[in-house]
Amino acid sequence: MSPLSSSRANPNDWPLFMASCAEAARDPRLRRFFAAGGPAPETPIGQASLVALDLETTGLDPGRHGIVSIGVLPFSLRRIRLSEKRYWVLNPPRTLTEKSVTLHRITHSEIASAPDLDDILDELLAVLAGRLAVVHYRNIERSFLDSAVRARLRERLMFPVIDTMQLEARLHRRRRWAWAKRLSGRKPLSIRLHESRQRYHLPPYPGHHALGDALATAELLQAQIANHYHPETPVGELWS
């Protein structure tokens, strides 16, 4: 059993998990990615190398839907490295639906000549390697990448992430007046990306574009740390 196979696993086991995956991986791209590791759990978030990651997909079920675009953006608490951004449109194994075309504005003609995930996997993993990924709702980014890699390589792709949606949920659950709002019938605060950014007075960006949402997620984490945490907060208290 892998160190993180249980839902109750200690998040500090991520370094051990990555090391064990590096030894077991058959694909050299995955082996290099896992061998690069990442920050130790005690690393202050202010000293960690981060990368914002966003996927746009044809739906919400990794088993039935595919990835149509990926945006990645390296950053730190002090600087967003726009010159190092990467963006890919992919040809998913599942057919685009009318709803997904309307939502993401990626059309059939755009994906017709687009690469498969396997074609850009080496480039993607090179950007992610050694960095701590930051996402807004890990059940999309991590689950879809893991499912896509399993379908192609019969290997897993799991890694620690900081989930800004989860951090926002923690903050609102901790507030003492949350129970009173529920009793009064008031609608709970949304923790979606756009609404979460509004609470920190961050500028609005067009949604459902992988690179734009990666930038929005990076800025949201910077605001969350500045307002509710500290640059010395260990990453092990934030990741999942």
Automatic annotation (TrEMBL):
GO terms for molecular function: 3'-5' exonuclease activity; nucleic acid binding. The keyword Protease does not apply. Keywords: Exonuclease, Hydrolase, Nuclease. SUPFAM superfamilies: Ribonuclease H-like. It holds the Pfam family RNase_T. One of its GO terms (cellular component) is cytosol. Residues 49-230 form the Exonuclease domain. NCBIfam families: PRK09146.1. This is DNA polymerase-3 subunit epsilon. It comes from Modicisalibacter ilicicola DSM 19980.
